Amino acid sequence: MFILPDLPYRPDALSPVISAETLRFHHGKHHRTYVETVNTLLDDAGESPTALEDVVRAAAGDANRTMLFNNAAQAWNHGFFWEAMSPGDGQPGGDLGRAIDADFGDLAALRTNFVETGAKHFGSGWVWLAAEGDRLKILATHDAGDPLTMVGLVPLTVCDLWEHAYYLDHQNDRKGFLEGWFDGLLNWDLAASQFAAAQGRGLEWTYPEPVMKAGTARLAKR
Where is pLDDT greater, at 88 or 204? Predict the structure, then answer.
């Protein structure tokens, strides 16, 4: 049975960009429902997978398992999203900082591209900074889509574009939410770790294992 992981910070730690009220609903209601639905679907099918990543990849593109894919991918996306945020200021440095300069010109240009990509995305989804080897790219995915199903891509960070992620705090100002999120909440330590993993130096973040295996997050090579 997959778990709803605890938040790595207090519910009010991301305010004012994300209020405690939004975080409680988002984590405690939306994410919880995705996890519970995944567990029900797997239990009904008599399956006991050991990695949520395997569930997402196996269900992707299977018309008979659309409901499983949507809920498993959303569970994974949210788990990564919580880790992709950290209260307090931070800046990318080292190899990641150099890659940003090489691929975007500077951090300000990356910010502009990231915010505009997310703000212009039609409907629900996610905006990602991902790595393909030592190259960086920004992409948006619809609904539950994520880079797990894209060969060679490793997500570095992500921001949720579904309205429940920001509407209580920012109403219809998605761009303002993205700007505040990028400037104040982006966890550059996770992004740097993921960037190193994309080049074979270290391990990628993975969703917590089912409780029958362990109750804490693990790291594993793709």
Answer: 204
C-alpha to C-alpha distance for 123 and 162, rounded to whole angstroms: 8
Tokens of 64: 């008979």
Q: What's the domain range around 114?
A: 94-205
Q: Is residue 150 one of the residues assigned to a domain?
A: yes
Q: Which residue in 141, 136, 111 sits closest to 198, CA to CA?
A: 136
Q: Is 182 a residue whose pLDDT tops 90?
A: yes
Residue 82 confidence (pLDDT) above 90: yes
Q: What is the CATH number of the domain that holds 116?
A: 3.55.40.20
Query: Residue 32 belongs to a domain with what CATH number?
Result: 1.10.287.990
Q: Are residues 142 and 215 in the same domain?
A: no
What does the pLDDT look like over 5-19, one tens digit per residue? 999 999 999 999 999
Residue labelled with tokens 């960009």: 17
CA 45 centroid distance within chain: 27
d(CA 186, CA 110) in angstroms, rounded, equals 13
Burial class (CB within 10 angstroms; exposed 0-12, middle 13-18, buried 19+) of 192 = buried
Residue identified by tokens 């790291």 is 219
Residue 15 forms part of a structural domain = no
- Total domain count for the chain? 2
Is-contact 125 141, C-beta < 8 A? Answer: yes
Which tokens is 147 given? 């880079």
Q: What pTM value is reported for the model?
A: 0.94
If you ran DSSP here, which 8-state letter would residue 85 be given? B
**Greatest alpha-carbon span in the chain:** 51
